[in-house]
Amino acid sequence: MRVTLDIEPGLIDRLKKAAKKGNTSISKIAEPILKKELEFENESFSMKSLDELPQWVKDLTIKGEPIPDFDNKAEYHKHLEEKYGL
Q1: Contact of 51 with 58, CB cutoff 8 Å
Q2: Is residue 1 included in any domain, yes or no?
Q3: Between the chain's N and C termini, which has fewer beta carbons within 10 Å?
Q4: CA pair distance 74, 68, nearest whole angstrom
Q5: Cα–Cα separations (whole angstroms), residue 28 to 17, 22, 33
Q6: How many domains does the chain have?
Q7: Residue 41 counted as domain residue
Q8: pTM of the full predicted structure?
């Protein structure tokens, strides 16, 4: 499964360097950290209350309501047009 995260560029660079140095992937570095933070044990998920979560996890949550009838494909093509002039 793929997940897209919005992480500051400096941190991404540090993760890539650490993964390359350890001859591993960013996923292999991140997975134990996320499991520990979310208390993920033996395929059973134990969610902490929102107040107990670290700020970086709270920052990942969606704030507000989704936009009704949002066309992801159209927005992506618009992005490509603006970026590459396609």
Answers
A1: no
A2: no
A3: N
A4: 14
A5: 13, 10, 9
A6: 1
A7: yes
A8: 0.40
Residue span of the structural domain in which 32 resides: 9-84
Q: Is residue 61 part of a domain?
A: yes
Say if residues 80 and 25 touch (Cβ distance below 8 Å).
no
- The alpha carbon of 38 is separated from its chain's Cα centroid by a whole number of angstroms, namely 14
The predicted-structure confidence for 36-84, as pLDDT tens digits, reads as follows 777 655 555 566 677 777 888 778 777 777 778 888 899 999 999 999 9
Q: How far is CA 61 from CA 3, 18, 58, in A?
A: 14, 26, 6
Residue 17 lies in a domain: yes
Q: What is the 3-state secondary structure (H, E, C) of the chain?
A: CCCCCCCCHHHHHHHHHHHHHCCCCHHHHHHHHHHHHHCEECCEECCCCHHHCCHHHHCCCCCCCCCCCCCHHHHHHHHHHHHHCC
Write down the pLDDT at residue 64.
Answer: 76
